[in-house]
Please model this.
Amino acid sequence: MTDAVDHIWDENNDLLNPDESEDDCPSAGESRPRMKPGEYIAYCYETSLGHYKGEQKLYIRFRLLGGEYDGLELFLPCPYSPGKKKPSTKYYRLWEIVNGAPPQKGQKIAKHIFEDKKFRILVVDTKRRFENGELKPESLQYSVVKDILGKIDDDFSN
Model:
């Protein structure tokens, strides 16, 4: 039965249609969006913690407002380790932009400060590479929020 390596057989030793045998395989999720890099207006609808390559990250999630990409959702990954945050960290800098002033010494700088607010954001393309440094194919590149450029202080009512 040398075909067993290339084909799938059922309990009666009948060759199965490959499409019928894939019931337990995962299905593809939605691909990550790709758009023209630049400055956009967006609403932060959620923050969540996760891990990437062994590092804890805060994912600040945005929905774009207006224009060609209205409604498109992107995220800003931000290193988020426990303990005190120094002014040189990305999280501290972003929090200060949203707060409008630096935190007082010892003040909690909670992640929920980003939620339910409008921002000017900078969107860029990822530059995903193989371990040898070669750029991965275009189809594996996607857009992310690189930075929060400023908070927009009007009501979110559009």
Remarks:
- DSSP finds one helix and five strands in the chain.
- The CA atoms of residues 21 and 43 lie 43 Å apart.
